Amino acid sequence: MEVFNLLKTIIQERRSIKKFNGKSVALSDITAVLEDAAWAPNHGNREPWRFVVAAEKGLEAIRTTIKECTVPKWNMLAPEELEQKTAGFKLPGAFVFVIVPEDLRQKERLEDFSAASALIQNAQLLAWEKGIGTCWKTPAWIDAPKFRQALGVKPGERILAMLQFGYYDELPKAKERTPIEEKITYFG
Ligand SMILES: Cc1cc2nc3c(=O)[nH]c(=O)nc-3n(C[C@H](O)[C@H](O)[C@H](O)COP(=O)(O)O)c2cc1C
């Protein structure tokens, strides 16, 4: 019984962290989280996910790649302006890009995206338990060809999430949820 209450608490109290404090997250913490998160349900045990992880020594490299590959018009900015616009990318302590296959069959594609989403939520909860905040991000440039190429994303694959990990100083307020009764239609 206690186990279920703990789970309920972690699910309810996890928050998306949008302001990290710049402290880096150990690669071993990221791989431990992914190892456990991979117990997500997935049809046919296809395990429809792979990851590009940027932590520790990869952290500076991914920040540079994001700057260089994402918003073309940023290339025209003066260095100080670019620095200001991209300052936020310095703060997460690790990045994980979750990549899923785009099955040509509709049903399998839906299943695979759903399974990878379950994995992502597992990862967010597991990180939270370790005191590490996360935010699932889908920036406008996530499908930009230059960025996909830099990450080694192949045709037939899609980046489902830029998952940011990091430490934080302030806990954001929860966005209230609609009472579930308003979302339920009782059948029969
Ligand atoms: C599929 C998906 C995409 C998201 N993309 C973004 C994003 O691009 N930028 C962002 O700030 N938050 C993003 N979020 C996080 C949501 O803003 C966040 O989950 C929501 O505000 C609820 O907050 P909570 O997670 O603390 O309950 C995304 C969440 C999901 C599930």
TrEMBL record:
<dbReference type="GO" id="GO:0016491">
    <property type="term" value="F:oxidoreductase activity"/>
</dbReference>
<dbReference type="InterPro" id="IPR000415">
    <property type="entry name" value="Nitroreductase-like"/>
</dbReference>
<comment type="similarity">
    <text>Belongs to the nitroreductase family.</text>
</comment>
<dbReference type="InterPro" id="IPR026021">
    <property type="entry name" value="YdjA-like"/>
</dbReference>
<keyword id="KW-0560">Oxidoreductase</keyword>
<keyword id="KW-0521">NADP</keyword>
<feature type="domain" description="Nitroreductase">
    <location>
        <begin position="11"/>
        <end position="167"/>
    </location>
</feature>
<keyword id="KW-0520">NAD</keyword>
<protein>
    <submittedName>
        <fullName>Nitroreductase</fullName>
    </submittedName>
</protein>
<keyword id="KW-0288">FMN</keyword>
<dbReference type="Pfam" id="PF00881">
    <property type="entry name" value="Nitroreductase"/>
</dbReference>
<dbReference type="InterPro" id="IPR029479">
    <property type="entry name" value="Nitroreductase"/>
</dbReference>
<keyword id="KW-0285">Flavoprotein</keyword>
<dbReference type="InterPro" id="IPR052530">
    <property type="entry name" value="NAD(P)H_nitroreductase"/>
</dbReference>
